[in-house]
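User: quick one, sequence for these tokens?
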């Protein structure tokens, strides 16, 4: 396959980037909003990674539907496509995939640190934030216990009904 640029254009009505969404809400998000956005983001990133597409994620390249909180990813300009070919070294491909998974979960950690108020290494969180949310954040901060995207989707925070 030769190198080529492909533009896929869509006019996503009622979507704004996550940075704008947070600004419009004056940084006053509910835990339910953060949970829905995070879950949608994890599903979207897992979908990309399962197809060999790895990308950096930040608040300005995540689109959020203003009514449903459905998440879309945009701006794949810096994305990396990792596909196995016969002449590729399997260990190299495995190392690239492992790094991409780490970088993706690190981006999620940074994103949650922006969405859930915190001060330095000690969390300062409104009392309304659940212990399940704190547990996920702790796992993301601890490199040794950091979860895969699939494991995150099974975390108790996404199973628990959160008050709005």
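Assistant:
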């Amino acid at each position: 396959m030769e190198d080529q640029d492909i533009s896929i254009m869509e006019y996503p009505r009622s979507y704004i980037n996550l940075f704008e969404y947070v600004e419009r809400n004056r940084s006053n998000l509910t835990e339910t909003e953060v949970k829905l956005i995070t879950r949608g983001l994890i599903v979207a990133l897992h979908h990309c990674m399962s197809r060999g597409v790895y990308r950096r994620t930040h608040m300005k390249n995540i689109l959020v539907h203003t009514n449903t909180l459905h998440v879309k990813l945009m701006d794949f300009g810096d994305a990396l496509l990792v596909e196995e070919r016969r002449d590729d070294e399997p260990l190299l491909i495995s190392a690239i995939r492992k790094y991409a998974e780490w970088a993706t979960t690190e981006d999620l950690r940074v994103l949650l640190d922006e969405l859930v108020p915190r001060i330095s290494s000690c969390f300062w969180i409104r009392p309304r934030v659940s212990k399940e949310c704190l547990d996920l954040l702790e796992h993301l901060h601890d490199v040794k216990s950091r979860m895969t995207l699939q494991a995150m989707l099974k975390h108790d925070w996404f199973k628990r009904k959160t008050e709005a």
